[in-house]
Specification:
It contains 19 helices and 2 strands. The protein is mainly α. It has one domain: Amino acid/polyamine transporter I, CATH 1.20.1740. Helix 4 packs parallel to helix 11 and helix 15 crosses helix 16. The longest helix has 39 residues. The radius of gyration is 21 Å and the shape is globular.
């Protein structure tokens, strides 16, 4: 039986590093700083922290508990609880979402590898030209996707856990070094003040919804990654402390990234509200003006590449776990097949950065360009919708009482009050709040 043969994490630390790696991605180091800049700095950070505690951690605990209880991928987990009916579509949505996100995430992540080379060779002048060149675009796309597949091919212990134990401490050390450099730049104090001194007049409904969306997307919730990672957790692992550690690690890295970017921006006299172009358009200009800027720039893009890789591993692992569990494929066949599928699906996204006028100028749902359209459909809508239905499924269909029994396994009675709070949040608060995030995505609310 698969339950008896299923791989497990070698240690609690290994799981925490792997799950933190899944959560810590481009969203922390790329999306979080510019979203913070657009929403008023420290006030946004404060709201974001509250959202992580009230929404992020409860949904994370819920997904981990479902995975550990069933020892299955998202499809198998839901089928174990409800063998018949339409609920399993939710699991398939998670698998599909993971592969589609991987298809374009690997393109953006490939840019980070390209910029390691470009920064080192002082050729970062034209970002638009770089991404419109099919040779560099497809070349770095293939390199990054290949690295992701290599790690997943190694399996749970020897692949994902082993590399997480190397990559996550390295990411932290590089980030720490960049912070020490950035905060000592002339004029950095203004950036630190903007980032860490809250102006509560900046908090609006828009700020709260932006913080909710960022907290949800950042923790890899809604697509089954944490169900899959949860299925490899031994029964004696404390799910509450593990989930809290993962969420706080994810949040810490995001906040640390801001301590690199905002001091550097203000030191260079640039606006913090630069939007998505912040990392690839603005920061290379800043690095070029700094003493030792080439070294700093190279290490910054290595940091981005590592963060992207630890997340892309979990995107692929969701589909691989499904193929191994449900289709009875070997890990090697599943990884190669789904990696190839991600590449094929990613071709239009790679061509939509200026190389193909058709894919670059495609208009749908208020978005322009194939990559932006699939990011909206899968990176925003599908994740949020998946998270909403998952919270309803775990809180009501499986039932918070049964989920609580799984979470309480091996814990003492002191955790019972915590479980009561969790049960209330996952049943009544999380679905309502995630629903408003969903409305906000479509600009209805």
């Amino acid at each position: 039986m698969i339950e008896e043969q299923r791989s497990q994490w070698g240690s609690k630390l290994g799981f925490i590093l792997a799950a933190s790696g899944s959560a810590i991605g481009l969203g922390n180091i790329w999306r979080f700083p510019y979203t913070t800049g657009e929403n008023g700095g420290a006030a946004f950070v404060l709201v974001y922290l509250i959202c992580v505690v009230v929404i992020g951690i409860p949904v994370l605990i819920a997904e981990l508990s479902l995975g550990r209880h069933t020892q299955r991928n998202p499809v198998g987990a839901i089928k174990t609880i409800v063998p018949k009916g339409a609920w399993k579509i939710l699991g398939y949505l998670g698998v599909i979402t993971g592969i589609v996100i991987l298809s374009y995430y690997s393109i953006v992540a490939g840019w980070t590898i390209g910029y390691i080379v470009k920064t080192f060779t002082h050729t970062t002048s034209d970002f638009g030209q770089f991404i419109a060149d099919p040779k560099s675009e497809f070349g770095y796309f293939i390199v990054f996707l290949g690295l992701t597949m290599l790690v997943v091919l190694g399996g749970v212990k020897e692949g994902i856990e082993r590399w997480s134990k190397i990559l996550m401490p390295l990411l932290f050390l590089i980030l720490l070094g960049l912070i020490l450099f950035a905060i000592t730049l002339p004029g950095a104090e203004a950036g630190i003040k903007f980032y860490l001194s809250p102006d509560f007049s900046k908090i609006t409904g828009k700020t709260i919804l932006a913080a909710l969306g960022q907290a949800f997307f950042s923790l890899s919730l809604g697509m089954g990654a944490m169900i899959t990672y949860g299925s490899y957790i031994p029964k004696n692992t404390n799910l509450i402390t593990s989930a809290t550690t993962v969420a706080l690690s994810d949040t810490l890295i995001a906040i640390m990234a801001g301590l690199v970017i905002f001091p550097a921006l203000f030191a260079a006299g640039m606006s913090p509200a630069q939007g998505p172009g912040l990392v690839f358009n603005v920061l290379p200009q800043i690095f070029s003006q700094m003493p030792a800027g080439t070294i700093v720039g190279v290490f910054f893009f290595i940091l981005l590449a590592i963060a992207a890789l630890t997340s892309s591993i979990s995107l692929l692992e969701v589909g691989v776990a499904w193929a191994v569990d449900e289709l009875k494929l070997t890990r090697t066949k599943a990884t190669l097949a789904l990696g190839f599928a991600a590449f094929i699906i990613g071709i239009p996204s790679a061509m939509s950065q200026g190389y193909s006028s058709f894919f670059s100028n495609l208009h749908l749902l208020g978005k322009t360009g194939f990559l932006d359209i699939v990011d909206f459909l899968f990176g925003s809508f599908a994740l949020t919708f998946g998270g909403l239905i998952l919270s309803i499924f775990i809180g009501w269909k499986w039932g918070s009482a049964k989920a609580s029994d799984e979470i309480m396994y091996g814990l003492d009675k002191n955790y019972k009050p915590v479980l009561k709070i969790w049960s209330f949040l996952i049943r009544f608060v999380c679905p309502v709040v995630i629903f408003f995030v969903l409305l906000n995505i479509f600009e209805i609310f």
